[in-house]
Amino acid sequence: MPLAFKYLPHYTYEDYKQWEGDWELIEGIPYAMAPSPFKKHQLISLRIVNQIYEQLKDCPANCQVLYEIDWIVSKDTVVRPDILVVCNDESEDFVRKTPSIIFEIVSKATAFKDENLKFELYEREGVNYYVLVYPEEKRLKVYKHTGSKFINVFDGSSGKFTFEEVECPLELEVTKVW
Fold first, then answer.
1. 10 in a domain, yes or no?
2. Is 74 within a domain?
3. DSSP letter assigned to residue 82
């Protein structure tokens, strides 16, 4: 084991609450978040949130679509997905229940973390669907959890995708994302 890893500090959510700036904490390791998203990122996020919000208005399972909110996974892991859908989460401040769907809008600055570290974290935590949104390519990749791992169930720039195994099934019209 390299020396640097041997002596890395291990932070907790209690430490995280004291930090200034935008951070994520994954298994005790802090990760600085990228600067504020570009307009294109914001507009894509808004379009996704609007589509989902409209469909959740009549959801009896108390599902919510939330934008850039902390998901407190454990005492040493806190992440802030771009967009998430969570159902029946009783907490009033942050998300404490595993989301049904997570969207990450991928940029050059976030690609490695979104495609690897967060992919494995969300897979391990049992997120039903993980959606990687690639603005430059106008493309979505949707991964569905099988009970043990994610499998790719959609990769495209148009059409519709239905999130079926969630408390309130949702449909995303992909062409309206761009």
1. no
2. yes
3. S
Q: Read off the CATH number of the domain in which 55 is found.
A: 3.90.1570.10
What is the number of residues in the chain? 178
Give the pLDDT band of residue 165 (cuts 50, 70, 90): confident
Helix (H) / strand (E) containing 156: strand 150-156
Comparing C-alpha atoms, which of 70, 68, 103, 62 is closest to residue 86? 62
Please answer whether residues 108 and 119 qualify as being in contact, where contact means their C-beta atoms are separated by less than 8 angstroms: no
Domains held by the chain: number = 1
> Residue range 60-84: average pLDDT?
96
In a domain, 130, yes or no: yes
Q: What's the whole-model pTM score?
A: 0.95
Calculate the CA 5 to chain-centre distance: 27
Kindly indicate the confidence band of residue 3, based on its pLDDT and cuts at 50, 70 and 90: confident
